[in-house]
Amino acid sequence: MIGLVVTLVLFPLAGWCLGRRGIGEAFLFGAGLVGALLFLAGVAHVPLVVALGLIGVWIVGSGLWELLRRSTRRPNPYPLLPTILMCLPLIALTFVAAITPLSDFDGRAFWVLKAKGIAQERAIDGPFFRGATLDPRNHYPILIPLDGAVIFGVAHDSDDRQLRWLYLGLLAAFALLVRERIGRMVSPTAGAWCAALLVWIPQFAVEPEGGALSAYSDIALAAFAAGAFFELVDAVAGSRGLAVSGCSAPSSPRDRAIRFGLWLAFLVLTKSEGLPFALIFLVIGAFVFRKRIVIPAITSVIAALALFVWRARIPAGDEEDILHKLPTIFRKLHHLGDALAAFPAHIFLFPRWGLFWIAVVIAAVLAWRVDRSGAKVAISVIIAMLAVYAGVYIATEWVASDLIAVTADRLLMHVIAPALFLLALGARAEKGERASSPAPDGRLARRWGRRRT
Amino acid sequence: MSERPVIPRIACALLFFSLAVTTLPRLVALVNNARTLLPLGYEARREKQMGPWYASVEALRRELPPHEQVALIASPRDVESAVFASYYLHPIRTRLFIGRDDYRNAAPDPMLPKTIVAVTADRVTQTTYDALRDRDLRTGHRVVGAPTLSEPRTTFILPIAASLDGPAPETFVIEATIVNPNRVPAELRATFWPKGLVRTITIAPGSTAKYYDLVHQLFGVLDRGWMHVDSPLPLRAAFYFVNRGHGDATLLPNIAGAATGLAAAPIYRDTKLFVINPAATPVTAVVGGVSFPFDPQAFVSWPVTNVPRVSGDVYAFVATREMNGRTDFLWPR
User: Fold this and answer.
1) Is the domain of B160 the same as that of B244?
2) Of the candidates B330, B315, B316, which has an alpha carbon nearest to the alpha carbon of residue B258?
3) Domain CATH for B208
4) H-type alpha helices, B38-128
């Protein structure tokens, strides 16, 4: 129960520290912020308890202040049916998470074990990470385990039942983020339906390896990637003079760049895939943010440096060092066929994805006609990230087909936000709205402008 | 409502249905499963999920010293179970060894955990290295399939009796076959020197007693020495010095007493001279021109680079390792 209270109070409050935002975004932002700050403190050898105390004071102070200071804007009127459909699986999953113990592989073998180790030693480079306990993937980034350690620490209980809410909360918050951002950028109806679709995707909702009932970090990574993606699309819309502000306070380009940078830092510190993801966002973001890309670049570099410094201090586990394997890629081109077929094979996997990815492909074509700039960003992110993952499949020392079988669906999770955005744009196109790309469509701009008011 | 285009709504409904058709039944199953678990306590729910394996982890967690690192030894196919054992034993620190060989090869490591936990997919138990070794040897195959039995004798000495491990795969044991050809039960008394451990066994008439690891099975120790065997009735026997790791075996002589006449012979690596004093009194022997006192029932060895001259009331022999790992013995004439 304490775990539930800590999860529901701490992370949203932390998210509101840097400005008023929807509760979903606040939860994700808070989870990222708390984990990232504790990680930096740990790397700097600031005692984690002291760091958490300071962060706690700051969170409660500024979070509450921000919450009370800003007038609460009326949320967008989301349609009832998709809202109910979104809530149904979340309620069912809440019931299940409250009762059933954790039973997935990676969650117990790596992620929650790390949280327990950190909570017990109150350090991120203590004996646990130096071989005192079997930790097969010692170099995995630990942002989410740090959040878990905070919950364990506050609850004074290292039982994984305390963390069930964190992982479920990440999915719920992700859905709310999607609803709010797509609702703001496309339409409340589109946002509500995209959120409903998200929580009904089997891979997110019920899949034992990687779903909301597991303790994998893939939903967190997907959610942070979504945060970064939406800032990027916001910036694209902003640069075209489109109004994109909804329930949040209007934000300056600088604030947007800072938020974008923080999301990238969270990506880097959440999973190993986060680093290439952040690089891709930085490259695409450079065309959008122009000079302001320096801000996200700095936050990403700080996060990456901290990660490398931390890794240098502790022994490696049995994880594969893909960076060192990349030069061998040309000797392994025989994996190319498997790698290229990996994602097409999995997007048609009906029990995991239904018709979702087929719909995304169709929507991408339609979206290109309604908002070429937004669609371009979304498609670029998806293709670039899947290309990186395909490259990893070529370079890996594992049997490529085995690795693909156990990871491809989880990697597809990471690009779900741009995919949902394409769906929303595609649905809009089907409603007969067209943009005369590349210039912003006047009608669309007027519609967005109207919605703002 | 009527102004809204139909195609996106149909497409959205189809897409949603394609997701719900998979998710909904699984969600219902998860909820039903949760309902069945609801009346149980949290630990009982875990037991229900993971079966007796989790119960064994729970029991072990109460037994193990909380502040001492433990070694988890699992076979390659049980590594997954070991990873989960590590998770549920936390905060007890764990170190994984894949197979017993992995553990014994780490013997020089001063941080090697002394407490051993054997992990399988069925259960997790605290155990000892000796027990794991015995389990492996028992389930493995004996090297000597058709032993060459001695003539019937009532008393004799085995010049070397050992149960020892070197770095993997070196595993030294004595494989023994003892036959009672008599019409009455035979009582055999074995004494393991220099420790002086004594065990008595009874062999039924016309029966055969077989040992895959004589020293450990009789005396429960991993050690080396020599053995005195006596029985009121004549028994036929065959004792082999076996390296299970290499699958080679050497038939040991059943000696009667002192002998020192070692002939010159080629020696290889790890060559050692062994001297035993089978008598119950101290003796003095000359080894390579130097006199040495030997305690009663002594068993002494030291490395040599050639076959030395030995004289005195002792039994001396040389063991040398061929390049292929096989152990050769030079017995005295």
Assistant:
1) yes
2) B315
3) 2.60.290.11
4) 42-50, 52-63, 79-89, 100-105
Q: Is residue B268 part of a domain?
A: yes
Give percent above pLDDT 70 in chain A. Answer: 91
Q: Which of B201, B231, B256 is the last residue of a domain?
A: B256
Average pLDDT over residues A14-25: 87
Question: Higher pLDDT residue, A19 or A50?
Answer: A50
Torsion of CA A251, A257, A259, A261, to 10 degrees: 180
Outline where A240-293 has alpha helix (H).
253-270, 274-289
Task: Report if residue B11 sits inside a domain.
Answer: no
Contacts of A196 in chain B (CB under 8 A): 16
In a domain, B135, yes or no: no
For the segment A341-362, what is each residue's pLDDT rounded down to a tens digit?
888 888 888 999 999 999 999 9
Distance CA B42, CA B49 (A): 11
Domain that holds residue B245: 142-256
In a domain, B54, yes or no: yes
Averaged confidence pLDDT in chain A: 87
Q: What single-letter amino acid sits at A403?
A: L
Question: In chain B, which stretches have pLDDT less than 50?
Answer: 1-2
CB burial readout B101-124, b (16+ within 10 A) else e = bebbeeeeeeeebeebbbbbeebb
- One-character DSSP codes across B229-284: EEEEEEEEEEEEEEETTTTEEEEPP-B-S-B--PPP----EEEEEEEE--SSS-EE
pLDDT of A437 above 80: no
Instruction: Verify that B239 and B154 share a domain, yes or no.
Output: yes
Per residue in B282-300, is it b (16+ CB within 10 Å) or e — as a string? ebebebeeeebebeebbbb
pLDDT at A343 (0 to 100): 83
Based on the fold, state whether residues B160 and B116 are members of the same structural domain: no
B240 and B263 both lie in a single domain: no
Q: What is the model's pTM? A: 0.84
The answer to whether B218 and B256 have CB atoms below 8 angstroms apart is no
pLDDT at residue A220, rounded to an integer: 97
Helix (H, G, I), strand (E, B) or coil at A315: coil
Q: Are A168 and A211 in contact (CB under 8 A)?
A: no
Q: Is B193 found in the same domain as B121?
A: no
Question: Is B124 in a helix, a strand, or coil?
Answer: strand
- Does residue B167 come out as left (phi exceeding 0), alpha (psi in the -120 to 50 range) or beta? beta
DSSP-assigned beta bridge partners for residue B241? B174, B250
Disruptive mutation site among A1, A84, A100 for chain B (greatest number of B CBs within 10 Å): A100
* Nearest by CB: B26 against A100, A202, A356: A202
Nearest-CA distance B122 → chain A (Å): 17
Nearest in space to A147 (alpha carbons), one of A262, A27, A264, A63: A27
Which of A206, A360, A406, A425 to probe the B interface (max B CBs under 10 A)? A206
Burial class (CB in 10 A: 0-12, 13-18, 19+), A69: exposed
Helix, strand, coil shares of chain B, percent, nearest 5, are 25, 35, 35
Pairwise CB contact (< 8 Å): A158 & B91: yes
Q: Is the pLDDT of residue A269 over 80?
A: yes
Residue B196 backbone dihedrals phi, psi, to 5 degrees: 75, 25
**Which of B104, B127, B150 corresponds to the end of one domain?**
B127
Q: Domain tally for chain B?
A: 3
Could you tell me the pLDDT band of residue A397, with boundaries at 50, 70 and 90? confident
Q: Based on the fold, state whether residues B317 and B213 are members of the same structural domain.
A: no
Note whether A146 and A124 are within 8 A (CB).
Answer: yes
- Pull the structure tokens for residue B259: 């002998």
